[in-house]
Amino acid sequence: MSNPVVHFELRATDAPALQRFYGELFGWSMLPHPEPGVARVESGDDHGMTGSIGPLAADGDPRLTIFVKVDDLDACLERVAAEGGTVLAAPVEVPHGPRIAQVADPAGNVIGVAHGGGREQYERFRAAAGG
Amino acid sequence: MSNPVTHFYVLGEDPEALTGFYTRMFGWATHDHPEPGSTIVQTGAVGDATGRIGPPEADGTSGLMLWADVEDIDATLAAVERLGGRVIQRPYTMTRGPQVATFADPEGNVMGIAAHAHEAFAELKAAEAR
User: Fold this and answer.
1) Which one of B19, B35, B118, B126 is most buried, counting C-beta atoms within 10 A?
2) CA of B67: how far to CAs of A1, B6, B52, B103, B120, in Å?
3) CA-based nearest distance B11→chain A, Å
4) Which positions in chain A touch B10 (Cβ < 8 Å)?
5) What residue in A sits closest to B103 (Cα-Cα)?
6) What string of DSSP letters covers A39-64?
7) Alpha-carbon Rg of chain B, whole angstroms?
8) Tens-place pLDDT, residues B41-73
9) Cβ–Cβ below 8 Å for A5 and B8
10) Is there a contact between B34 and B68 (Cβ–Cβ < 8 Å)?
11) pTM exceeds 0.95, yes or no
12) C-beta separation of A131 from A29 below 8 A
């Protein structure tokens, strides 16, 4: 069992400006993403997380989420409450993407848990988004 | 130039509870962190992200933070200011760790940058094994 953190998601009030900032600062390419207004980021070649930078969907949305890749999403979610966390959003299938859920840790930080995702996932995204 | 995001912080008032939550949920290996109250988590194989779970920073920064590996801290901070971000923590060298700095992006998200963090982590693990 390794369950690595593989992905980050930044949500912005002004997503195009934040995409330009990180693109220029780190030389990250902003690549097509199936969701409108969202850019896909590959921050490293052989190591490093993938990410996305997109618009805030609602005021209360977390601005930064990190995603943990797990083998069994349902089994993981069943254990969250007993370990002191909270399941915030039940699993959804991202179009062309992984199955994800949102969890709050005991301090209230929001993290994503994903089945699928990471680098293989981005190969499928790349194919679907034409980038 | 790739400047990968390789590390994250989860900071909160009760780091022990947070460390317990993450290690029990995800089976992450832990390593001693030079700063008291902090733990390093290794989330996967070599090359996968590492993290630090610990108390809030002295400047009040808490919650989640991303860290990117960069070649040149000073050049990166100069670019941060040119592009509309703000330097939060000027460069300093962590105890038995890499040279690091933090900045806020134009929306106020605080992010860390570290020079050669992978090598510093390898040294930390080697010191632990001795």
Assistant:
1) B19
2) 24, 6, 10, 10, 14
3) 8
4) 105, 107, 109
5) A25
6) EEEE--SSSS-EEEEEE-SSTTS-SE
7) 15
8) 999 888 889 999 999 988 888 999 999 999 999
9) yes
10) no
11) no
12) no
